[in-house]
Amino acid sequence: MRSMTxxxxxxxxxxxxxxxxxxxxxxIGMVFVMLFFGLSLRAGNLNATQQFxxxxxxxxxxxxxxxxxxxxxxxxxxxxQDPDALPFKTLMQVSVMTVGPDATPNTILDILNIxxxxxxxxxxxxxxxxxxxRDDEAKRMTYAYTEFERNPFQSSVPLVIQxxxxxxxxxxxxxxxxxxxERTVFEDNRYRFENLxxxxxxx
Amino acid sequence: MDRQSHxxxxxxITERGSQTYHNRVGAYGYxxxxxxxxxxxxxxxxxxxxxxxxxxxGIGVSLLTPVQMGQAQxxxxxxxxxxxxxxxxxxNADSIKRATVFIMQTYESRGEPVxxxxxxxxxxxxxxxxxxxxxxxxxxxxxxxxxLVISVTTRLDEPPIPTYTAEVVDSSRGLDLAVLRITGYMxxxxxxxxxxxxxxxxxxxxxALGLDDTITVMGYPQFGDEPVTATRGTIRGLTAEARAGDxxxxxxxxxxxxxxxxxxxxxxxxxxxxxxxxxxxxxxxCRVIQDxxxxxxxxxxxxxxxxxxxxxxxxxxxxxxxxxxxxxxxVQQGENSTPAFSAVLAGPATFTNLFFTTxxxxxxxxxxxxxxxxxxxxxxxxxxxxxxMVDGMVYELRVTVDDVPDATYSLPPVxxxxxxxxxxxxxxxxTPWRNGRYDFRLFIESREVGSASINVGIGPSADPYFSxxxxxxxxxxxxxxGTNYVLPEGSAVQARFNYHNMTPETQxxxxxxxxxxxxxGSRQSETWLAERGEQGTHMITVTADFLPGSYRLELYIxxxxxxxxxxxxxxxxxxxxxxxxxxxxxxxxxxxxxxxGPIRTEFAxxxxxxxxxxxxxxxxxxxxxxxxxxxxxxxVFEVTEPWADSDTGEDFFxxxxxxxxxxxxxxxxxxxxxxxxxxxxxAKVGLGQLRAETFQSAAGxxxxxxxxxxxxxxxxxxxxxxxxxxxxxxxDFFWDQSMVAGVSVxxxxxxxxxxxxxxxxxxxxxxxxSILVRAAGYYPLSAxxxxxxxxxxxxxxxxxxxxxx
Lengths: 203, 805
Prior knowledge:
The complex is a heterodimer of chains A (about 200) and B (about 800).
Chain A: H1 2-12, H2 18-46, E1 49-54, E2 59-64, E3 68-70, E4 78-81, E5 91-98, H3 105-116, E6 121-133, E7 136-147, E8 159-170, E9 173-182, H4 190-199, E10 201-202
Antiparallel strand pairs in A: 1-2, 2-10, 3-4, 4-5, 5-9, 6-7, 7-8, 8-9
Chain B: H1 9-28, H2 34-64, E1 76-80, H3 93-98, E2 100-109, E3 112-123, E4 129-132, H4 134-137, E5 147-152, E6 161-172, E7 177-185, E8 214-219, E9 229-241, E10 245-257, E11 264-266, E12 272-277, E13 286-288, E14 304-306, E15 310-316, H5 321-329, E16 331-333, E17 350-357, E18 372-374, E19 380-387, E20 394-401, E21 404-405, E22 411-415, E23 422-428, E24 436-444, E25 447-458, E26 465-474, E27 480-484, E28 486-487, E29 490-500, E30 507-514, E31 517-518, E32 524-527, E33 536-546, E34 549-557, E35 560-569, E36 572-574, E37 577-579, E38 581-587, E39 590-591, E40 594-595, E41 602-603, E42 609-616, E43 624-631, E44 634-642, E45 649-658, E46 665-673, E47 676-685, E48 703-709, E49 720-724, E50 740-745, E51 751-753, E52 767-774, E53 781-788, E54 796-802
Parallel strand pairs in B: 18-25, 28-35, 41-47, 48-54
Antiparallel strand pairs in B: 1-54, 2-3, 2-5, 3-4, 4-7, 5-6, 6-7, 8-9, 8-11, 9-10, 9-23, 10-15, 11-12, 12-15, 13-14, 16-45, 17-19, 19-23, 20-21, 20-22, 20-24, 24-25, 26-27, 26-29, 29-33, 30-31, 30-32, 30-34, 34-35, 36-37, 38-42, 39-40, 42-45, 43-44, 43-46, 46-47, 48-51, 49-50, 49-52, 52-53
């Protein structure tokens, strides 16, 4: 403590010359630059992605780093969930459905609605629009339902979940790209799904 | 547990920076020169800037770092749950209580659901198979039902909550057992197969239980308005019954309320060894709950729910094993050549020809007839003929010893399982029978239909008697061959029996019966010849046209029945044995009774149905026959009923269906008559044996606990608790689901419970688990090296305090 006191006294009694002032400005400037760099790095890392590739299914996509990846199910090619998200684990997945030659994206969405209605509580389609996915015609559907804890031994308040399905057809099957998020942060985190759509390759 | 401690990552880095800063000031702060001082001051600012930069970078990195690998955190505590207060060695009362469900039969009346009957049940698989009494689940006259509602205990000190709907997968009204499957939620949404992860119990070995063994019975004592209850007791008796053997019922002295019927009885290891059972319609109390007739009042004119009575009988889980295995494997009995037998009752149900025996042979035939027995016996059975019975009827045996009712030897009202007519027995084996006069009274639907008495404890008797009748054919050398209780059609039958204490000039007689009617000219009365001696073996021959059918021989001494045995004549003789069934063929399809699929004994995996065809000859309609389907040697279906086809024919078929495809296994068909196996054939599907992981094990530990905010102590809803597969540590984990052993998301109060059972290790080879806890806005936590050995108490309680960022 003694050394600290002496040092402050010296600084207080000696005016800084120009070089010293510039050095101070430079140091402070460096702090802001590095802070900006750090925050950019943080943002970049938080949004960092890694490549997922399933050659057998013919799907390649960039998925968020640090999300729990499940590609061992027969129901989908892959599913990723954000382990940090509260209270609902943000979900994105790509699945395929075998379809006949006369199937259209609209019929696929109808089938999805029929399948989900008895399984998801208060399931309701909100909108259906046309879009292009890498030059392929696709159909985009938004929907909502209430999610509850499936384990009866845990208490929970039902959550309103909003979702998006993008359906694109390829010979013999339909690819369904899904995003689900809790309603209040649905729009905030939708950019992740848009990133997935921008990077997904179906081959 | 090997626990390490470590502060949150950010704290560690900040402290190191601070420490570094402090040391450098100490090194350069003692010079008196101003220039040097300014230089030092500049250095100080630069260093300060650098330090701030490092702090910011540290904060940024710490925010980005998913988790500090391989280190346990201070805020994580793990405490095994206290041993359940049941004094049972390994009984995990918590898990068993959660696996105990409350079942309500409901129907819709005037647009409103009405509860008609209630009972208990037990989850026996993770995906929602429930074992219970058939009368608890099946609709009946008193239990109108179109929906089965399943309530589960979410908090052990609270009543169950209606959560699911279920369907009956398979049932036996006679055994009063049923297996249900949870199929939907209360709001009508269906449950995808395999999506449930419910606590469940394993079936134990009920045959290993002995007298005075401790058991614990779980169920709901009231109308579902009280928590699940555990009642302790001991095995006080074992009741024998025809077809089910010496352990048809376990008897207990525990006080078990009637609504716990269908629940579970557990041994000291926490395995399900029985189903507490009371007969339907015997409840002494009935509660009016709802206005079911719509008159605006809930009174005696409305439907009432039976809830009273007490249970003293437990169906051994052994008898439910076939139902459970079939339901788990997704197999069911398919179409047969003849439709399922349904009795057409010709009159009131009767029990006749009551007599006692002390021994029953392997064919279920009484070897002697006794009117009194010496002290010290441990087995006594009451035999009788029955007619006009229906499976599911209620019958009862009341026994008094010296005019005092005795529950040990009695059988409370239970369901009948013997079919329409035949011979039945009830008694107790391996149970000490104390001296006294025993009066047996039999009841059908509360109506007394027969009685018999016997004295136990008299001295050794010197009275003559016969025993051990067997039947056969006489070979050319005059010897009895092919001794059996199923004989081929022919013109002569020999009977051999043992005699004891016989004296010359004793009057004895024998009578032959065919389908319950005395064979003309078969009654013979004789005087015992001195040259035969006091004891030995004697043989009698009757020559008659023995047509296919059921026969009986009765032996009398001094006009009192001394021995009795039944036999069946069927099939043709081949080397002194009766051959009834032949030419067995397995195939995968049939059309109008003709095999249309490939005929072989080995099939590729993926078939949906297995059909077995066979021919038969000289089997009289009405003859009782038993067929069994086995999978890998275990019986999954067993049906005993009268033969309902012609006496000779071809291409009789039995089939086994699957809900999806038949699992790889060896499928067998056994056919027996009079408890004698007549044919046993098998075919392989796929690998020819069930895969090792087919049947889930309830062994393992559960991880549960609470995730809270370290500052406020409030639970963090939605926090994710991940347990890695034992072969991975935190360092190895790269967020692939295949590396995860179990996941749980904290509920609205921060509580989590990993539904997957985690494998136990041993002391020599412990299993080490790693865990991660994640929640947005909090520093991630992780820990390696959570040791699980064979006696680790379950659930392992892990309480996590997360530090806000």
